[in-house]
Amino acid sequence: MSVIVELSIFPMDKGVSVSPYVARALKIIQGSGLPYEANPMGTCIEGQWPEVVKVVDQCFKDLQNDCDRIYLTIKADYRKDRSNGLSGKMASVESHL
């Protein structure tokens, strides 16, 4: 696996609490079978670029069905020789603490 994408997606037209919509996106991510880690500000997904982008697109299309305005940010970290980056990156940092 060579890319880690951090995704944050939610509607801007559904009031103060958007957790039901975030949960819908998270269910899509879970169903993808790709390694992921959810956090309070987004979700990191690891895999090959085409499969990760496909999951992001599925999340967007799901919310697009009933949301008039969607906020979406994506950050990506590509590394050719990496595997298990979600756990490995944190282990590397923690080894220096």
Summarize the structure in words.
By secondary structure, the protein is an alpha+beta fold. The protein has one domain (3-94): Alpha-Beta Plaits (2-Layer Sandwich), CATH 3.30.70.930. 41% of the residues lie in helices and 29% in strands. A 4-stranded antiparallel beta sheet has the order 2-3-1-4. The longest helix is centred in the middle third of the chain and has 16 residues, at 49-64. The model has no long low-confidence stretch (mean pLDDT 94).
- State the shape: globular
Note the run of SSEs as H and E.
EHEEHEH
What's the architecture in CATH terms? 2-Layer Sandwich
Q: What structural category do the secondary elements indicate?
A: alpha+beta
- What is the CATH topology assignment? Alpha-Beta Plaits
**How many discrete structural domains?**
1
Helix content: 40-55%
Identify low-pLDDT runs: none
How many strand segments? 4
Instruction: Return Rg in Å.
Output: 14 Å
* CATH class bucket: Alpha Beta
> Given the structure, what is the number of helices?
3
Strand order of the largest sheet: 2-3-1-4
Determine the strand fraction and express it as a percent band.
Answer: 25-35%
Q: How would you characterize the largest beta sheet?
A: 4 strands, antiparallel
Q: Provide mean pLDDT, rounded.
A: 94
Distance between the termini: 27 Å
